[in-house]
Specification:
The chain contains three helices and four strands; from the N terminus they run βαβαββα. The longest helix is centred in the middle third of the chain and has 15 residues. The relative contact order is 0.23.
Length: 105
């Protein structure tokens, strides 16, 4: 198992969580998924691992969805840390999403 190198301040480096949410325009399911993702990430305290997320509209960028094997929207993809995880739906079950992403309570 690889150990993360120590940060310059003497602590350990944080693992960045990289997420990509695929939506189809601003329809109700897409809006709900985005809102639920924001709510889920907002409850994380400031000292937790950093989070980066991007929203991709498949109506404008279909090729990107194809590259990530996304055929249904909304779909949330955890790109980092590996393994890649895909969650389909509006993300309304915060506990299940948190568990799938490996986020602490």
């Amino acid at each position: 198992m690889r150990k993360e190198p120590a940060a310059a301040d003497g602590g350990t480096r944080k693992t960045k969580l990289v997420l990509r949410l695929y939506v189809a325009g601003s329809g109700p399911n897409s809006a709900a998924a985005l809102s639920n993702l924001r709510d889920l990430l907002a409850v994380r305290s400031g000292d937790e691992d950093p989070v980066e997320f991007e929203v991709v509209n498949v109506l404008r960028e279909a090729a990107r969805a194809f590259e990530d094997s996304v055929i249904v929207s909304p779909t949330l993809v955890r790109l980092h840390p590996l393994p890649v995880v895909r969650i389909v739906g509006t993300l309304c079950d915060h506990e299940a999403v948190r568990l799938a992403l490996g986020l602490p309570k």
